[in-house]
Amino acid sequence: MKNTIKYITIILFATALSSCEKAIDLKLKDTTPQYVVEGVLTDEAGGCKVLLSQTKNFTDNNDFNGIAGATITIADDNNNVYPLTATSTGVYQNSTLKGAVGHTYSLNVSVNGKTFTSSCIMHPAVPLDSIYLVKDELVNNKDGTPRKYVTVQYHDPASTKNYYRFVQYVNGRKEESIMLEDDEFTDGQEVNNNLRFNNSNDNPARDIRPGNQVTIEMMSIDQAVYKYFYSLSNSANGDGNNAAPANPLTNIKGGSLGYFSVHTVVRKTLTAP
Amino acid sequence: MKTNRPAWVSMLICEITRTPLRTALGIMMLLLITAQSHAQTQGPLDKPVTVTINNEPLKQALDKITAASGIKFTYNETVAKSTVKISINAKNQPLGDVLRKALAPHPFSFTVLDNEVLIKYDAGKVKKQAAADGKYTVSGTIKSKQTGETIIGASIRVTDANAGTSSNEYGFYSLTLPAGDHELSISAMGQKNITMPVSLSGNLKLDISLEDNSQLLQEVTIKAAPAGARDLASPQMGVEHLSIQETKNIPVLLGERDVIKTIQLLPGIKSAGEGSGGFFVRGGATDQNLILLDEAPVYNASHLLGFFSTFNSDAIKNMNIYKGDMPAQYGGRLSSVLDVKMNDGNNQKFGVSGGIGLIAARINAEGPIQKGKSSFLISARRTYADAFLALSKDSIAKKSQLYFYDLNVKANYVLGDKDRLFVSGYFGKDVLKAADIAGINWGNTTATLRWNHIFNSQLFSNTSLIYSNYDYKLNIKQDVNEFNIYSQIRDFNFKEDMQWYAGDKNTISFGVNSIYHTIKPGEISATGNSGIISQSLQNRYALENAAYVTNTWKATDRFTLTYGLRLSAFTILGSGDYYDIDADGNIIGSKHYTSGQEVKTYVNLEPRVAAAFQLNDVSSLKASYARNAQNLHLISNSNSGSPTDKWVASTNLIKPEIADQFSVGYYKDFSEHNYEFTVESYYKRLQNQIDYRNGANVFTNQPIETQLLYGKGRAYGAEFLLKKKTGRLSGWISYTLSKSERMIDGINNNQWYNARQDRTHDIAIVAMYKASDKWTFSANFVYYTGDAVTFPSGKYQVDGVTYYYYTNRNADRMPAYHRLDLGATKQLKKTAKFQSDLTFSLYNAYGNPNAYRIFFRDNKTDASRTEAVRTTLFTFVPSVTYNFKF
Predict the structure, then answer these.
(1) B51 and B90 in contact (C-beta within 8 Å)?
(2) Would you tell me which CATH number, out of the four given (1.10.1040.10, 2.60.40.1120, 3.30.750.24, 2.60.120.560), belongs to the domain B132-218?
(3) Which residue ranges does chain A devote to CATH 2.60.40?
(4) Max alpha carbon distance in chain A (Å)?
(5) Which of A2, B472, B592, B829 has its CA 20 to 30 A from that of A179?
């Protein structure tokens, strides 16, 4: 919810400073490509997936720059090592590996003589009690129809630190916005959290419209992963609001960008009225 | 005295005629007896007079002599206004004898001019008398004749000796001179110069009224005196004075005259950018400027997200900005002191003035409470920008509110010859609201009670009690939820400043200051089902004490030295928890302190030294060193300052920021003081600078230290200013070449990087042209190197979304900023009772699309590409304002 407060505050100032926008030709530096590791292990089969890619120059296209030929393994805290195999360029999976709550998993990526490692613990799932839509009173969709957001309802467990990440699918389309929450101000409370997102490119497919199937995935993530996504969305999304953009705080050692998240997933679906 | 030549000629004549006259007088009786026929050669000086005059002013005495003898006198204003008093007791004595005796102790001589007697000021006689015993002090207050306003920084010079002083911030001056007769020349910006003879045979209280120069300005030939010229003899460096009249014709955004916008056109002072109220001084951050309004610190000096400053020009008398070499009575900030003084209010007559512009209206009323003794002033402003929002097509904008109002009030009361009381206050509020769903209001409140006391002609005291408050309140309604966030910083402040004019060589200032700070970092209250638990962060308390003493020593006619010391002690007080934090920002321990318990005291010795060496009458060299310590820090990570940026006091972990600044300068007046050229160069070393960690969480109930990193900084540069002060065309060209860098442990691989405010080049050209009695035109042009920023060096995908890769901090540049503004003022009606004018301005006249920010995104139409997008705030902003005064 504190992200809601931040979001609304930004909208407030942005409105006051309404201005004109123009794409410009800006000469940006190029650098040697950096590795990006995106490692995920969930409590569901098929949820073990590591994406390995490299950064591109600003002027290049946005296609995923997958890197083949890496050796990637995940080990549990009983020294069982599970290999991942490439399913397409830069995509490595283990279709059977599932994480178990309370266990710590280690990621090892070897590519072209470099090794990247990380470890992460799986926290227990927090039940998602319900999801429902609320109408936004501040902004409308681009076409003037009312803008709707999902509100998630759950009970935050008392006296443990909890970090959540939400992913929204509208008719199967994944929403790009990073939606995070922690329990700094809501420890042990019944929480109704509004999942706001900024439809920055006015894509109608992102809006929630009558008849749409909306699915919410709720992940209980580790603090380091929360910090990664928090800093990713605040300082690396290029929105120009941050005075000091920087690379996000990663939990991967060895000099790559990215993260390794081991988390539980719960989900709920509704049909927009 | 219009020119020196006639006086010099008459002196010469007098010297030539004196000897023959004396001889002649000796044989006069003989001639009278022996040759009656010679009687027709008798001059006016020979005429016998019988008159008794007992200690009467010179002019009055001369009138009496005329009445008694029929001999007429001619003399100039110096004689007419002279305070010299003479006594005569003559019975049938020749006029020449009578005058010689009466004028002997005074700097006047006489000579015959046809059938009249010319009385002239005679500086030659003063020199002879200077050897006379004893020194005495002339002191008093300098005021405006029209309004009774005290005049700050008026120059009082002794024309016959290399001595002088200037009035202090309450208009008081004190000058110690040898006994005898002197001539004082008094000048002040916007006032007519006057000269005034004084005769010192004891301490003298002399209040001086100056006449407004405004009539003069209206004349076709503008001939302003060198008043307001930089004081070449004073060691004070890095200072810029502005009287409010000077800001009158400079075009500004939306026509609101603004001292803060005007100072940004001076070298070394840089705008923090459009949409930001802050300014950078010599590579310092915006929070390193101490902004004082009638001595009360103002924590947020901007309205409407920086488009206006909190200073309503109607209520402002004068401002000084010190860019370095801060006098020892100021402390607590590293980069600059902006000292703004409000008008006292007209104590001669009641008047109302005001203005109506496109987005704001102003009204100002002032007048005497007791004529000539006490006065009041009330000045108010309100913007109505939101009236235009209703016309907007945008649904949010339509339902939005955006305005500010502010109020300045002041009253002063003369308790007696030696005592004066001032009460002044400021109250301002900004409101930004979107359709009752989200709103924020913020504002400053200050109140000052001051007591001026003149102990004696050499000792001046001011005692102040000051209250300052800044707070903001954020309100958000969402679905069934409502949130309120409140934050505040509040000061109670006691100040005692003394000025001791110790003889003709030393001026000593000393004083103490004690401020009790209370900072409420944040209080959140929530209702609804969000689960947010209402809570407040612990208040922080601190006591900031300081004592200082400084002396300005006029060592020789050419060399002046100011040396002083400020001792500051910042004591952090409980109650509250204070923490230990590891290198990664994790809390590893904490300690609770009870109410009033001392957590830690930081003591800093801040030496200040400055020297001026006057090369000749029109040029001087100066050098200075100053150390400053700062214990209040504004933590901001947004690109343009926001009203919700956090003020944080030093803690056990946040150390006082310290700056050492060295500067040297060269100053020259030329073309008879019509032009002024200055160049100053500085080097500044900064310690304990603060920045956010990468990925810092701004909205947290964790101690702020968990989000901070510390390091050092350095800044250096050269500033050039060429100013034309008189004539139809006046203005200046300012150029700054500078560098400002930071090295913070944990940022940019611990390497030096450019501070955001690092700007290599900064140019401002300001020109005002008085075309006629009716029209004044003005223009200013600014150009500066774009801010140091961090742009992406690459991009990558996370979860299918584009993010950006960054390398070095602040290694890129925003595009260079440049802009031309035009202004014109048309004087409409002007009578003694009523005057009005129309002011037109055009901001960004050639519509340069300056970048407010640059952001990066996937192209809206071709999602396979990324693009850089520039947002621009203002291109071609016209305005018209109607001002009136009656």
Answers:
(1) yes
(2) 2.60.40.1120
(3) 35-121, 124-245+265-271
(4) 58
(5) B472
The alpha carbon of residue A27 is apart from the nearest alpha carbon of chain B, in Å, by 10
Q: pLDDT at residue B35 above 50?
A: no
CB-hemisphere CA count at 13 Å for B418?
Answer: 9
Chain B nearest C-alpha distance from A272 (Å) = 17
Specify whether the CB–CB gap between B129 and B87 falls below 8 A: no
Interface confidence (ipTM) of the complex: 0.94
Architecture of domain A35-121: Sandwich (2.60)
Fold of B281-885: Maltoporin; Chain A (2.40.170)
Tell me if B709 sits within 8 A of B725, measured CB to CB: no
Place of tokens 């006198």: B73
Is the CB of residue B235 less than 8 Å from the CB of residue B611? yes
Tokens 């109250």 label which residue? B427
Band of residue B10 on the pLDDT scale cut at 50, 70, 90: very low
The model's pLDDT over B612-650, given as tens digits with 9 standing for 90+, comes to 999 988 899 999 999 999 999 998 766 666 777 888 999
- Tell me which of A58, A59, A247 to substitute to probe the interface with B (most B C-beta atoms closer than 10 Å): A58
What is the token pair recorded at A143? 């076409």
Give the H or E element holding residue B43.
Answer: none
Q: Return the residue matching tokens 């409980």.
A: B574
Q: Is the pLDDT of residue B864 over 80?
A: yes
Q: Which of A2, A182, A195, A249 to mutate to test the interface with B (most CBs of B within 10 A)?
A: A2
pLDDT value of position B26 = 39
Tens digit of each residue's pLDDT (9 = 90 or more) over B475-516: 888 778 888 989 999 999 999 999 999 888 899 999 999 999
CATH topology of domain B5-127: Phage tail protein beta-alpha-beta fold (3.55.50)
Phi, psi of B75 (to 5 degrees): -160, 165
Give CA–CA dist B155/B186, Å, rounded. Answer: 6
Highest mean pLDDT among A28-32, B70-74, B238-242: A28-32
Task: For the beta carbon of residue B591, count every other beta carbon within 10 angstroms.
Answer: 12
Q: In CATH, what class is A124-245+265-271? A: mainly beta
* Buried residues in B198-214 as b, exposed as e (16+ CB within 10 A): bbbeeebebebebeebe
Give the CA distances from residue A55 to residues A116, A246, A259, B236, B796, in Å, rounded to whole numbers and listed in that order: 16, 15, 15, 55, 5
Residue in the structure block whose two tokens are 């065309």: B729
Ramachandran category for residue B62: left, alpha or beta (phi over 0 → left; psi -120 to 50 → alpha): alpha
Among A30, A156, A184, the residue with its CB nearest the CB of B700 is A184
User: What are phi and psi for residue A91, nearest 5 degrees?
Assistant: -110, 120
The pair of structure tokens assigned to B408 is: 């300045």
Amino acid letter, B868? A
Cα separation of B776 and B249, whole Å?
A: 8
Tokens for B592, please give them. Answer: 């609770």
| pLDDT exceeds 80 at position B275 | no
Residue of A nearest to B644 (CA): A9
Q: For residue B583, name the pLDDT band (cuts at 50, 70, 90).
A: confident
Q: Which of residues 133-192 of A touch B (CB under 8 A)?
A: 134, 137-140, 144, 151, 156, 174, 176, 184-187, 189-192
Q: Which one-letter DSSP state was computed for residue B533?
A: P
What's the pLDDT score for residue A3?
59
Residue A157 is given by DSSP the state P
Distance from CA of B758 to the nearest CA of A (A): 14
Residues 6+ apart with CB under 8 A from A207: A141, A142, A145, A147, A148, A170, A199
Tokens (6 digits) for A167: 């992913």
pLDDT tens by residue, B714-773 = 999 999 999 988 888 989 999 999 999 999 999 999 999 999 899 999 999 999 998 988
